[in-house]
Amino acid sequence: MVDRVYNFSAGPATLPIDVLEQASQDIKNFKETGIGLIEMSHRSKEFMAVAENTESLLRELMEIPDNYKVLFLQGGASSQFFMIPMNLLGNGEKATYLNTGTWSKKAIKEAKLFGEIEVAYSSEEQTFNKVPEQGEYSISDDSEYLYFVSNNTIYGTQFPTFPDTDKLLISDMSSDILSRKIDVSKFGLIFAGAQKNMGPAGVTVVIIREDLMEKTPENTPTMLKYKTHADKDSMFNTPPCFAIYGVGEVLKWLKKQGGVEAMEKRNIAKAALLYDCIDSTDYYRGHAEVGSRSIMNISFNLPSADLEAQFIAEAAKIGLMGLKGHRSIGGCRASIYNAFPTEGVEKLVAFMKEFEAAN
Amino acid sequence: MVDRVYNFSAGPATLPIDVLEQASQDIKNFKETGIGLIEMSHRSKEFMAVAENTESLLRELMEIPDNYKVLFLQGGASSQFFMIPMNLLGNGEKATYLNTGTWSKKAIKEAKLFGEIEVAYSSEEQTFNKVPEQGEYSISDDSEYLYFVSNNTIYGTQFPTFPDTDKLLISDMSSDILSRKIDVSKFGLIFAGAQKNMGPAGVTVVIIREDLMEKTPENTPTMLKYKTHADKDSMFNTPPCFAIYGVGEVLKWLKKQGGVEAMEKRNIAKAALLYDCIDSTDYYRGHAEVGSRSIMNISFNLPSADLEAQFIAEAAKIGLMGLKGHRSIGGCRASIYNAFPTEGVEKLVAFMKEFEAAN
């Protein structure tokens, strides 16, 4: 048995030990073929089955409607920042963005290369400590889509409910996909890097409504057209085989846990343990406004930067790793994605109480 | 011990068993940290060391000069087909391409989106069974670079020596990087998908002369500028951590084998075993002209398609897997990259002789 620590890393992030054990075997001999998973042709029937199974599990768990394609792409979520406007704003149309953190800012920068971008809301002046409520912004009639980041990994904020609008919704769900039940049919496109809630780094899932793929300008490079990948079931070129396999294994695990609904309940309970601890004292201060709190990333501060450094160092000594906040806001952050165990959160809460009493 | 077969797959391709064994351990507990390699932050000191070590080993083994950057990118070699002209032909300049197979054809198609493309040579009419000799083509004075595919995986052809020209050389070395000694300083840019000679699928190595990164047009998306990745040591966004780790492990293995020079000798000897067998009879016919033969991929035919199917099926029964040729030319193909053992080639040659005698 592996001697595990509690890994609060924001991504790549902790994975279920069952997944690691299985991958450890498959990597050197996949299903007794005498060939390891990572040296196996992507056109082999064995790997094709892996890819198909990964897609069908994701469809099942997220209840993705038939008129949506599921793509497994490379380039990270960061490549979606330009691929979305490149494919959807081909004639320089207008789109609306909500600026709730580093990742939406980066997406806005790339989108401006392709169309007219309206930033309808920004919480930048208050260090991105909240997401907008319904009615806090308005969208131009001629806007093609509304883009927002469902969960802001760095600041620890999350949309508790999604924008209620007729506009096409596009969302970066990199850090909360599969953490709560959503209605995919309300979205035009959802994307997420795998390395937080879905598997190892190296693959990005794009869920796109089929009709949207027809908007791409002709002169777009082949590899940058969504349709290229959709038409070939993400096998137009050699896919990132191991990362796709890893996502499939995480999805199998997720299904065994009871699926997304069960996971959502557990996530809410895990986050509540931490927020209750934070709210019970003035020693710890949550970064996010209460109504915008994330159930995935909990960013908080201690009375001073010195105490924060001491807190992080002492936590690491007892196997609570990766609690340092992102360099852009400092402080502490506990990322508790689907695969993060409740016992780890309980241990952190116990440590927080001890640390407060001692310092 | 794993019961291994001989895997002649063209890519993803066979990897050294030592690499698979090591990955199998590291994946669940990296260097006794209690965190698996694939769930570890890419900003952790442990993973940063992996990435640095991978780059420095590649620099050492290929003797890459200091004025070249080594990038680990996503999107496959196929993404380089457009990234190269997008970055280097920003003002619609001219470039020259040698058309020696499927992958050069695809590269030409993408390049035409950005500049004026001169196809100075094509062996398409003879089913790409050769590469050009020096003097078989000419390059316009105003051409910015000469692009060629060093080894053509599908057709089993390879440039025995590189084009002798003052022009900037750009080469797709996906299927023969690290298989033979080359002088990097003669090139402007070399790229290769990892999944043939370097590691698992999911990462593409780009070796680029620094000054070339200055040509990229301003309005290029951030993720598509070489400079973005060079400035951040390929960590601008979350990299494909496991694939980079895998390349590093393969490079460690390669160094232990004696480096590129030792590997080249072994590769020549392995290929000779097969070509000698093919040349000793009329039963087997090599696809490539003798002067263009690849030491990595040996494409050959039997007297009929029926016999080829029978050959592939019987070979599989004795553990010689993946001998089916690419769908575009049919027949048989043995891919024998660096990690493919000599014993496997010997076993194939013995089988070829038996099969000929029996059929």
Key structural traits:
Aspartate Aminotransferase, domain 1, seven-stranded mixed β-sheet, 9 helices, Aspartate Aminotransferase, domain 2, 2 domains, alpha/beta, homodimer, three-stranded antiparallel β-sheet, 35% helix, 359 residues
Could you characterize the architecture of this molecule?
Two copies of one chain form a homodimer. With 359 residues, chain A is an alpha/beta fold. The first copy, chain A, has two domains: 21-256, Aspartate Aminotransferase, domain 2, CATH 3.40.640; 258-358, Aspartate Aminotransferase, domain 1. Helices cover 35% and strands 18% of the residues of chain A. The longest helix of chain A has 21 residues, at 259-279. At the A-B interface, helix 1, helix 3, helix 4 and helix 6 of A face helix 1, helix 3, helix 4 and helix 6 of B.
As for the CATH topology of the largest domain in chain A, it is Aspartate Aminotransferase, domain 2
Strand content of chain A: 15-25%
Reading off the top of the CATH hierarchy, the class of the largest domain in chain A is best stated as Alpha Beta
Helix percentage range of chain A: 25-40%
Compressed to H and E, one letter per element, the order of chain A equals EHHEHEHEEEEEEEHHHEEHEEH
Oligomer: homodimer
* Estimated structural class of chain A: alpha/beta
Please tally the β strands of chain A and state the result.
14
User: Low-confidence spans of chain A: pLDDT under 50, at least 5 residues?
Assistant: none
- Mean of residue pLDDT of chain A? 97
Main sheet specs of chain A? 7 strands, mixed
CATH homologous superfamily assignment of the largest domain in chain A: Type I PLP-dependent aspartate aminotransferase-like (Major domain)
Total number of helices of chain A: 9
Strand order of the largest sheet of chain A: 2-10-9-8-5-3-4
Q: What is the C-alpha radius of gyration of chain A, as a whole number of Å?
A: 21 Å
